[in-house]
Amino acid sequence: MGVPGRTPPSLLRNFSIIAHIDHGKSTLADRMLGLTGAVDERTMRDQYLDRMDIERERGITIKSQAVRLSWACQGTTYTLNLIDTPGHVDFTYEVSRSLAACEGAVLLVDAAQGIEAQTLANLYLAVQNDLVIVPVLNKIDLPAAQPERYAAELAHIIGCDAEEVLRVSAKTGAGVGDLLNAVVARVPPPAGDPDAPTRAMIFDSVYDTYRGVVTYVRVVDGRLAARDRIRMMSTGAQHELLDIGVIAPEPTSCSALGVGEVGYLMTGVKDVRQSRVGDTVTIAGQPAQVSLAGFQDPKPMVFAGLYPMDGSDYPLLREALDRLQLNDAALVYEPETSAALGFGFRCGFLGLLHLEIVQERLEREFGLTLISTAPNVVYRVVMLDGTEVVVTNPSEFPVGKYTTVSEPAVRVTVLAPSEYIGAVMELCQARRGSLLGMDYLSAERVEMRYRLPLAEIVYDFFDALKSRTRGYASLDYEFDGVIEADLVKVDILLNGEPVDAFSAIVHRDRAYGYGVDMTSRLRTLIPRQQFEVPIQAAIGSRVIARETIRAMRKDVLAKCYGGDITRKRKLLERQREGKRRMKMVGRVEVPQEAFVAALGGGEEVVARRS
Amino acid sequence: MAPPDPWLDLTAAAWGEIPGRPLRFYLHVPYCTHRCDYCDFTTYTPDDPRGRGQAQWLPGVRTELALAARVLPAALAGPVHSIFIGGGTPTLLAPETLGVAIADIADRWGLMADCEITVEANPETITPSLAAGLLAAGVTRVSVGMQSAVPAVLGALGRRHRPSTMVTAIECLRRAGLQRLSVDLIYGADGESLAQWQVSVQAALDLGVGHISAYGLIVEPGTALAARVARGVTRPPDDEDLAIKYELADAAFEAAGLRWYEIANWARPGEQCAHNSGYWRADTWWGVGPGAHSHLGGVRWWNRTNPHAWQVGLADVRGDRREARWPVAGWELLSAEQRALEQAMCTVRLRRPWPVLGNGRLRAALVAEGLVVPVGVHHASLTRRGRLLADHVVHRTLDAAGECWMTPASAS
Prior knowledge:
The structure holds 2 protein chains of 2 kinds. Chain A is of the alpha+beta class. Helix content of chain A is about 25%, strand content about 35%. Chain A has an 8-stranded antiparallel beta sheet. Chain A has a 6-stranded mixed beta sheet with strand order 2-3-1-4-5-6, sandwiched between helices. In chain A, about 50% of the residues are buried. By secondary structure, chain B is of the alpha/beta class. Helices cover about 40% and strands about 20% of the residues of chain B. In chain B, α2 runs parallel beside α3. Mean pLDDT of chain B is about 90; it is low at about 405-410. Classes of the chains: A alpha+beta, B alpha/beta. At the A-B interface, α13 of A face β6, α9, α10, β10 and α12 of B.
């Protein structure tokens, strides 16, 4: 293998793998590690590069990584950097930075399923970054594989000959060597000026408990050497390079990284926000004048309140969020109080998967049990006097007169078998979508593009899409500005008292449906009280839906003799224990479970993960 | 694990309070010819091997009484205030058998002159000779399982007697000279209409008995009824229906001169069940027989439910080996909080006014909500509406008093 810092760019190939979840990216990466001798069989484990438990369990990659491989091809030993990318739309920005560190991309598609919408979106990103695409069909060993059909589809999409589509089985290893040869042959070597002032792009940044922040960079110009004093071009912050190295695939220190090389830096900082993805690293003593293009601050698009089930866990939740933020520059949060749920935090996320991952990590890594409010998007309300109010929580929705309300929009790409065109159109129309275009990928598959309010896909869009297409449709979206809409805030009142946790901002046409759904759900979830409890949905002071929980007429009329006393006492003790976990809304006792059940569905979350 | 020995748990304080309390005995007869669909009591039918040891019942009871005599302190020498023989179906045993058990208690502790001795009976088991036998055995009171006067409802409950049997049974008992009679009713069976319930209420009143108990049907886990409800064959009791039926019965009983003295019990003056009242006052009682529960100064224990296991445990005790297996299946030493909760739970159910201590606002609130009527300066008693929501009132009183509603000493 070439020595880091002394490997000529002509012997370097930087590439990533673009694939849908389940299409075998991690398995292919494992196979490459084995074939190039980077990992021997003894230390091999499945999905070697996926670090977090959640990644391995869910089979998805959240944080990308780069691994340096050595590959001999026609008598020459090349150094390959495989840059792993996250596969989900929430992390589009990270994907785009990972791709920006490469000259080529392996487009990996399941030979039994064909390309999926998310893959297509990432493929477009790669093409926008001028990457050379190496199309590959995986799982050719499967009986259900249709390599001819999907090779033709891939060739059609990227505009190449079907013969150029490679065929591998990551599981058996068949064709993986040929694939690596193709990477060497087709992906161009990096270009850069070794004598120019140093510029390196940060494409990932992770927090490690023992080593602080580990920053992954791709050197574009110049070189980075151990003990250099570096400077972050967006903030001007300077740090000493404590360690520099490559991942092969365990971290290995080296003396320097030259043009086109990929490796890691450690500076001892403790917070990933000081080492942002997309930023340019230069040398403090001889700084570059112009940063590399493409740095963006990640903007949270989806907000939700997170509350500890047990109010006394609030300090623990704060600490946990602080710790997570060290590793997740996109996570934002601020304290929030809910009359119904107590003390918690309003958190901003890149998208729904990001929300779920954060919630799951909080619960798993910090032992918290959380209640999450229904996720909502950011609204901008222009008041009569021209002032603009930014609403990240329905309870902040202004009461007074306003002229317009706008909400974020997304461009949605749906890939589906052509027989489901009608079903998809019907769904998108119902969700206030407008059709932007439609293309046949092949005679059987169609790509439909819609513009939709983000809020419409935040809730259960993916579930609905899957159920209407018998699971065959795939979905991707990207953020696409804002649109004005006729939005109203619907409050839910329990015995006349608004329950802030259930307030929602919805389109006027959908307000009634939301009100009816929420009030009827709550009627079944809230136990009878000693008095009749009306549950109302209201826009302002106008009630649009109403249910009633009838007063409890009786509790237990059973006999209470010698043998019954212990049992009855235990029943009352359990009730008293249960009452302690009740939240009071005015005079109404609401069990925690009612909030959990009313605010979100477990199945929904699971379905959205797939 | 150490052998269960509830009596080792008795504290000096507990022993200290016992002499002030009346001593009572409960005898459990765990046999029936047929198990009713709603029943989850300790009872066995002849198709179960455990239901075939009726001959062993009396020896076992006598052994347990001997054990009680050894355990109970000298201060509890008697005399006994009441005996209650329940089941199961106690009248499946010969009245002479019950008489021997009663005589054994009388020999050991003596009986108060007005000692109340109640036997539970199923109407179909009552004959003139049985009635005479019960009287001869010393029985003073009979509680008859009527449940309903409507054949369809009796069928829905899995009962096998006909309504007319009830009339005959009561006549039999009266002719034999047994005057203190009570009947049990159950309301809320699937399909029971309000009119049918009214028929049962009136039929019970027409019997002219001095005491009626009426219980809302409960679907207990593990019963035939629970299985039918789970299969969707039978609808579970409906709260609204139960509440209306309670109100209906209460109005009819009160109008006929039977006043409520506990949520599920109505009686003419002087006809209240002394034995059951002892349960609600946390008196001392020893429950003899399989599955029977006992209470002694803040310690509760309960016997093994399997008659054979109960007998084996007793045989070991007779040998005076402390490490032996006992007839006891489990026991608990009540904490001060638990005793307060039990006390609130039992006392609130009684008509006799109970003190709402420590918090004048609570009583005012409960009165305003129509749950209690105020009595005197600190006391209160449940309204009809309050009786339907008694558990709620218990929680409110405990909430207001910070779980220290009453000390045991203040309850007498």
